[in-house]
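step: validate -> pass
step: tokenize input -> pass
step: predict -> running
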Amino acid sequence: MTELHARDLRFTPDEGAAFLNQVMGLSLTAADLAALEARTEGWVAGLQLAALAMRDHQDRSGFIRSFSGSNRYIVEYLAAEVFAAQPAHLQAFLLHSAILDRMCGPLCDAVMGMATTDSPVTTAVGGPPSLRASYSQLILDQLERANLFVVPLDDDRRWYRYHHLFADVLRHRLTSGVSAETVASLHRRASQWYERQGLVAEAVQHALVAADGARVADLIEEHGLRIIVGGQVQTVLRWLRALPDALLPTRPMLCTIHALALLFTNELAAAEARIQDAERGIQPATPPDQAQLIQGRAAAIRANIARYTGDLAGCVACAQQVLRLLPETETIARTIARLHVARAFRVSGDVRDDAERRAIAVIAPFRAAENLLGALAAITNLARLQVLQGRLHAAAATYREMA
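step: predict -> pass
step: emit ->
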């Protein structure tokens, strides 16, 4: 028996170019051919429909840039030949899952509102299988066997996506057939599932599409600090910019996250302004531990602002506030504050044993956290102290640790 699947029936780029330019006589440029091939993924009927549509357009490059599942020819073909031919339960599945850029069984179950207990999920495409059999997983298997415009993303057939044009058609039918709130509820379910799996970026993205600003704010407050320190500052700033302007001043903890991101992009005045918003947001009804956390984070950011502007004494003073206010669970902020305090000898001139002990103690936490920049700063601080002590051989050995 010989089986033919969708990948066997697709045109290669060369075949697509020959069909469009030689058979259909369109004389498209190489760039236009590449863009159209990427959009249709070599789907022969899609290429033919695009070619027919382009005959009515003088600006063929512009048409290719805008070519999507909302194009009249694509909608009519897929609606009549594919979607309408499916049983009702498959139509419902296709529409609900169309909001997803990639799909797996438990995720689709969650989006469809099915009661499920999430089992561990392979989140990396191509990883080992770990999904339990679910209703939606069986549907995805069925769609693939039927060659119904699904593309497997891993060898284990756990993660899928829809063909781009088919996804466009499904989303168009969904948004034109149900209320905006219904669509938003699907995105909220997807967001909740992704958060449970530890996929914060996907969780935020679906919350943004759902226009659920409060949920986006909750996610940033919960995970933003870790994401910023991990180097994805612009990602967090993009999420914050998508929120309503009036929301941030009402969320003091969110203001501290925003201030930290602004600090990392060297927008010091804006960071200070956002810290002041956070402090104004502390109300009499604010729980004392939360108020102290906000004040401690504000002091941590101000310590860095002071250091960046050359106010070392102010930096040390703010760092001492951090150590008084923040609980031990605020590991990152407290470790950085200890480094700032370990620099106090540069202000006081006290280079005795106690100053050295502080300088040495702060190195290990940075190394344990695999924070290379922090470790280098701490080692440099120790070496400078040893130079001031007159222990030049020890300072040279400390500097060699950075090599």
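step: describe -> Residues 122-131 have pLDDT under 50 and may be disordered.
step: cleanup -> pass
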